[in-house]
Amino acid sequence: MASTSSSRYAKHRRIGEDEESEEAEEEEEAEEELERFDDFTIASSWERFISEIEAICRQWLADGAKILMQKGAEGVPPFENLYMIKRELKHGKRIIAPLSASGVILDDPESTKLLSSVAIALSNCGSNWPAFVPVHDPSRKAYIGIQNLGTVFTRRFEADRIGSQVPIRLMHLEGLHELFLSKFVLSSTDFPARVKVHFSMKLSYRTPEYGHDNETLDSEATEPLTENEVANHPRKLWDDDCPWAEWYSAEDPVKGFELTAIWGERTFEETLEMAEVENASSFDADSWFLHPVVSQYMVDDSIGKFVGFASQLHLLVNVYESSVEAQFLEDFVADTSGQDNSKSSATVPPPSVIDRVMKDLFSDETGNYMEAENKYSRAMRGAPADSLFGQFCLHALWFGNCNIRAIAVLWIDFVREIRWCWEESERLPRMKNTSSIDLSSCLIHQKLQMLMICIERKKSLNREKGAGYKDETSNSTAVNKSRKGSAGVVPKMMLLNTFQEMHAPYTQDAPLMTEDMHEERLHAAEAFGNAIGLSGQLERDILCSDMSAFKAANPDAVFEDFIRWHSPGDWVSEDKTDGNAGWPPKGKLSQRMSEHGNVWRKIWNDAPPLPVSKQKSLLDPVREGEKVLHYLETLRPQQLLEQMVCTAFKSSADILNRTMHGGFKEMKTKMDQLYATMVSTLKSLQGNSDVNDLAGDLKRLCQVFEHIEKLLILAASIHWKLIDAPRLAQAIFYNYFNYYLPKMGTSLESICYEKEFTTKEKVGMYERDTVSNLFPPPTANQSWRKVLSMGNLLNGHEPMQREIIFSVQERISNGHYSSPTPLCTNDEQIQTHRMYISGTSNDLWVALSVTSWD
């Protein structure tokens, strides 16, 4: 009984404890409910998040585009007033990022919540900026968006992309039209059966890349070509007919053309009408725009990647800097083991290459000297591009990558070949037949002209020695009494003693002299000049030759007769001026000619009466020829490189100036500026300026040369591709010229203000046939390999991109967008639905916007 009663007591006690615990739990839950009371007068974290977005938007609106650009905003390329700026939001743990660190895209509730937050913030700012949020997988580039259009309308956006396996229905305009209608025509009761859809389209075509046609034809050949046939039929390059092709082959700067054909806005009511548009010719488009696809090296900001005359001239300037290190060229040819790396690394081509260059230089060609028609060309003191030394400099630019050792080896072999021509009395190739020396050219070219004349004189003397001639000195009496070598009677002049007509004799030309010989003559005149101006033996020889010829033409002449003819200023006339002068004429010699011991009279007394044909030549060809060779063989490296730099710049510019570029006036102006810059810069090479200072100026000149060379090659490419549409070619080049102009500074660091060239030029109706010829019909092999999925073909080429806009417009006063308020009493139209479609047969991107009344 005791155990039973005790157990019953324990049970009642547990029941009592359970009741007490339940009461305690109820009290705790009541307290918790009181603790979780929300005070709606305090902003929530989400409201604070919206407030932070609003503050940032207000700051952006206040800053404007210029300040935002300074803060790191980036322009979106095709658009002028579209910028991208980033700002991180850090609002506790409530921040929602469109893309998390793991790469997971927001789900629908999150994306809608984020979009609503941004839209509320923009609305509070009074801004009509659209807001977008990415959705779905990143590869789809899908998004949703919203835009507040004021107090009445709201525009919502939706976009998606099909990256592969585009349905066939959506490859054609009919299927795309049906897709657009499906977004709002749910049944025939919603809209009339025939919906007026506004349509516009832009098609982009791309020409085949130049240079691939030959490869395609080779692949289609039925029989393979043998090695000999390939060698005999080399592949023709685009610039084979350009003047620079002899020295290098330039990469075609125009890789192709992009043609944009635009159909303006049209209205269609039936889907079948889309098929007619798709099958229409591209010539039916309202507008054509052409854009050249320019090679990357043309738009790249860096200098030095382009290989042409400018790059080799830069190497030649480096050689000029190092030319002061030695006194003789042979020092650079010697073994370089143990010397510095700059010399040892300079390679020299093998002997076979040297022989080929020498064979080309000394081929039997006469220099035509096709000088470029430029007023500055002759002011640069260089050799003509087609002359022997001009060709040597051009070969040196490409010989052994233009290093000092290669140039030294080439020059030594060059001079050796010139000596062989002299010793064998063979005419120098590439030298114009002339009896004068061009003092406006460089000294080496003058020396080669002198040597050319000496070779011809030496050959003439050898022929005379071989034929032999009779010595007529025994008949001196007959010679003295007969007239020899008369060039004609001198008008109104008679001999003083015999009253016979005075005859002018044939005289020897003044001996040819190069620039350095003229300087020597002037120095001699300064050092040894005398009262009668005879500065040396050369002047004495010339005077004696003239006196001998005068005596032969006038056997009875006296010294006074020679003075009246040769130096009228030394005859003082005393005749009256009334025209009744008697005979003999009254006058006398000047004071200097009548002095005792006058040199002129002494020479007259000693001069024999000999015509020019019997006189010894004033020019000793053997002596002068050996002097020329001595100069060439002992020329110092720096003197050689100075003349090579001038000639190389001049010859390169003259070759480029022969380029046919359609007469683009911008190109002609730039070439004139290049010549003027070269004249002012290269003029310093003729003085005693410091080599290091000159090298800096020459390197800057190389940069300017490169800019203009690239522009000229582009102009030639555009001209030849659009030769039948000169207006279009000129306009396209003008557009690129304006784009490239900011890059053409004189500093070593180039600045480009626009990274891409995107300007398009409108094609005239009469130019469309020429432009369509840029799209050659595809071959059978190409047509088989390429699946044509879209229409609107141009010579068999489908567009590389198609952009379409469908839209539906409604009046505000219609039932769907009407309002009982006075705000909507007008008859204005709005776009209720608009779809933008872009892509190809393998890639389709669709964006839809819907405007609704709130």
UniProtKB/TrEMBL annotation:
Q: Where in the cell is it found?
A: Cytoplasm
Q: What segments bear the compositional bias annotation Acidic residues?
A: 17-34
Q: Does the keyword Cytoplasm apply?
A: yes
Source domain of life is Eukaryota
Q: Where is this region: Disordered?
A: 1-34
Q: Note the Pfam families from the entry.
A: Rab3-GTPase_cat
Membrane-spanning segments:
none
Family annotation (InterPro entries): Rab3GAP1 (IPR045700), Rab3GAP1_conserved (IPR026147)
List UniProt keywords, sorted A-Z.
Cytoplasm, GTPase activation
Q: Which residues form the Rab3GAP catalytic subunit conserved domain?
A: 481-633
Q: Does the keyword Cell inner membrane apply?
A: no
One molecular function GO term is: GTPase activator activity
Q: What is its main location?
A: cytoplasm
Provide the Gene Ontology terms for cellular component: cytoplasm
Q: Which family does it belong to?
A: Belongs to the Rab3-GAP catalytic subunit family.
- PANTHER family recorded: RAB3 GTPASE-ACTIVATING PROTEIN CATALYTIC SUBUNIT (PTHR21422:SF9)
Q: What is this protein called?
A: Rab3 GTPase-activating protein catalytic subunit
Which species is this record about? Miscanthus lutarioriparius
